[in-house]
């Protein structure tokens, strides 16, 4: 649900962007990480 996604992001240090048409990324895929400011 939307509430559980929001709860997870409040505990995260950052995020990655996965294309909307993707089913995910393969193991060990290189991604760009966007860190939240401290």
Q: How much helix, percentage-wise, in residues? A: 10-25%
Largest sheet: 2 strands, antiparallel
Weakly predicted, low-confidence segments? none
Spell out the helices and strands N to C: HEE
Number of helices: 1
How does the helix and strand content classify structurally?
alpha+beta
Strand content: 5-15%
Kindly report the spatial arrangement of strands forming the biggest sheet: 1-2
What would you report as the Rg, rounded to the nearest angstrom? 12 Å
Shape: globular
| End-to-end C-alpha gap | 27 Å
How many strand elements?
2
How confident is the prediction overall: mean pLDDT?
A: 86
- Total domains, how many? 1
Compile the SSE list and pairings.
Elements: H1 2-10, E1 14-15, E2 34-35
Antiparallel strand pairs: 1-2
Descriptive overview:
This protein has 38 residues and is an alpha+beta fold. The protein has one domain. 24% of the residues lie in helices and 11% in strands. It contains 1 helix and 2 strands. A two-stranded antiparallel sheet has the order 1-2.
